[in-house]
Structure formats: structure tokens, C-alpha cells
Amino acid sequence: MSSLQPCSPVLSAAVAPGLDLRAEILRLKRERRAVILAHNYQDKAIQEIADFVGDSLGLAYRAKETSAEVIVFCGVHFMAETAKIVNPGRVVVLPDKDAGCSLEQSCPAEALQAYLEKHADKDFYVIAYINCSGGVKALSDCICTSGNAVKMVQAAPAGRNILFVPDANLGSWVMEQTGRPMELWQGSCYVHVEFTRDSILRIREQYPEAPVVAHPECPFAVRLLADEVCSTEKMVEYCQNHPSQQFIIATESGMLHRLRRECPGKEFIPGPTEHCACADCRYMKLNTLEKLYRCLRDLEPRVEMPEELRQRAEKPILRMLELSR
Ligand code: 13P
Ligand code: SF4
């Protein structure tokens, strides 16, 4: 007798074989009065079907302003949670509830709370990178994204001690830009720390004319080699306006789809890491067209949070959105 197990009945019943996923997603989107928001790191197929593709900041604005009844967030959990925090009247779903983030995991709310209590004498002004949980946002004074972190730190009250959480690389880049000292939480993005000086030098030898564009979550040695360090959205602007026809992109691989779409005719070379020809975020890549279809069909998994926590987390996000305009 064969030892092969039959296919999971749940999965095979979930999506009928031969279903035109694209057409079904568009039909369900209309039926549910939904909007599909996708981060720049999503797969090509998801980016192409989304109503809006952007960075964390652009997506937060879209989520806040949308009048759609359902927000389908193709990104990672903290992004979908941010959408729920700023627009609680909407149903917010994400294709895969396990789409986490190593930065979020590096700073549990309980650990931050304990740190703030232990160092109460420093009366920290807490600036939290948006890549964190709602619990961490609720303990913070202001949120920032990679697109506005410099501005948010410059806007912090003079004379206050700043604690910047959770990304130490973004935090040190902001200190370099602003000259403002900050205490840094020692979190990191497991994807961006894989870019190294050697991996970037090697690719630059092959493409000596191509500017290197890096995300500020990259380590110091990589940022030093880069011609431009910026958020994913600003990468689009930089590559559109720069006369070069080739660029080396040191960030997650999904960004290359966005750049190829926005800058037709230009060539984008993925920045390699020590181990791979390009960098994939395993959390971002959990989302697929099939899961997007299922979450629109079932309106699950949903993002929910206690109202009291939501209200506390909303304040520092609104501060950021106002200061960022
Ligand atoms: P951006 O806001 O620049 O898109 O970055 C989000 C992120 O998760 C980077 O790893
Ligand atoms: Fe988080 Fe890094 Fe993935 Fe961005 S790329 S979502 S920071 S793990």
C-alpha cells in the first residue's frame, strides 16, 4: 500500500482547481467594497493587483484615508495592525497572519516597559520605528518610518533624552544625519543585516558605474558604500531622477518589481548578501495570490485589538502623520 497521504481536504476544498485567481480577487474586491494595499516588498503578482503599492508611510496614509469597508493589507502584521489603529471602523485582513517581522520580535512591549521603568530617571522621549507591535507603539511618544525618521528626530523636544527603538541600524543612521545623540535599542532586520561590505564590493566590481542604493536598515559598512540611503519609496524617486541606467539595490527583492515598473528601460541589480544573489524577507513572501483570494473570500484572518490599547497606540502615529505632511 502506498504510504503517500492524500492531499489535505481543507486545502483542496479551499480553492477550486483552475480558478482564475486574479478575476476572482477583483470580483470579491468589488463585492466587499475592499481596497488592496501592498508593500513594495510583495511579489510581482500581488503588486500588480493592488490598488496602491508603497512604503510603510504611504501605506499608513492610504489606510487612514480610505473609505473602503475592508482593507486587505498585503505586507506584514505590524503594517496591517497600523491600518487598524488609524482606521478602526474598517475590517482589516492580511493574507497570512504569520507574516511577522524580526524587528518587531526584537522589542517586546514588556521588555520596553521594564526598560523604561528601570531608567525612569532619564525620562525618555521614545521614538519607535513603525516596525513594532501595537504594544510598543502605545509606550511611545512618536512613531517614525524610514522615510521620515530624520524629520521625527529633529522634531523631538530639545533637551529630552531620546530612546530609539527597535532598529539600531536605522537609529545610528539617523544620528549620523541629525547629530542628535540617542540611546538605541539593539534590534535589527534579519534581511538587511545580511548585506555586507564584501558582498556589495563584489557586485560593484561587476557594475562599477551603477550607484548603490541601500535601505537604512543596512549595517554601517554598507551604508558607507552606498551612493544613496533611503526608504523604499524614496528609492523610486532617486532612480527616476538619476541619469544612470543601472542601479544596485540593497534591500528586499520585491523592491525590484516596483522599480522596474516605475523606471522602464533602467536596469536594477539586486544587491547580493553573503549567502544569496538577492535578499528575500520570508515574512513578506508568506503572502501569495491564493492567500489573498482566500482572505478576501473569508474576511479572515482579521486584525483586532483592545480599544484601550488602540487609542494609546494611535496617538504617536497621528503625531507622526501630522509632522510628516
Ligand atoms: P519602508 O518603510 O522603507 O518601505 O521599509 C519597511 C521595511 O520593512 C523595511 O524592511
Ligand atoms: Fe521586518 Fe526586515 Fe522583513 Fe522589513 S524586511 S518586514 S524589517 S524582517
3D structure, described in words:
By secondary structure, the protein is of the alpha/beta class. The protein has 3 domains: 3-99 and 283-305, NadA-like (Rossmann fold); 103-190, 3-Layer(aba) Sandwich (Rossmann fold), CATH 3.40.50; 192-270, Rossmann fold, CATH 3.40.50.10800. 44% of the residues lie in helices and 14% in strands. The chain has 16 helices and 12 strands. A 4-stranded parallel beta sheet has the order 2-1-3-4, sandwiched between helices. Strands 6-5-7-8 form a 4-stranded parallel beta sheet. α5 crosses α16 (307-324) and α13 packs parallel to α14. The chain is globular. The termini are far apart. 46% of the residues are buried. Residues 1-13 have low confidence and may be disordered.
Short description:
This protein is of the alpha/beta class.
Topology:
Elements: H1 9-14, H2 21-32, E1 34-39, H3 44-49, E2 52-54, H4 56-65, E3 70-74, H5 77-86, E4 91-93, H6 102-105, H7 109-118, E5 125-129, H8 134-138, E6 142-144, H9 149-154, E7 162-165, H10 168-178, E8 183-184, H11 197-206, E9 212-214, H12 220-225, E10 228-229, H13 232-241, E11 246-250, H14 254-262, E12 267-270, H15 289-298, H16 307-324
Parallel strand pairs: 1-2, 1-3, 3-4, 5-6, 5-7, 7-8, 9-10, 9-11, 11-12
The structure holds 1,3-dihydroxyacetonephosphate and iron/sulfur cluster.
The site of 1,3-dihydroxyacetonephosphate (13P) has 12 residues, from loops.
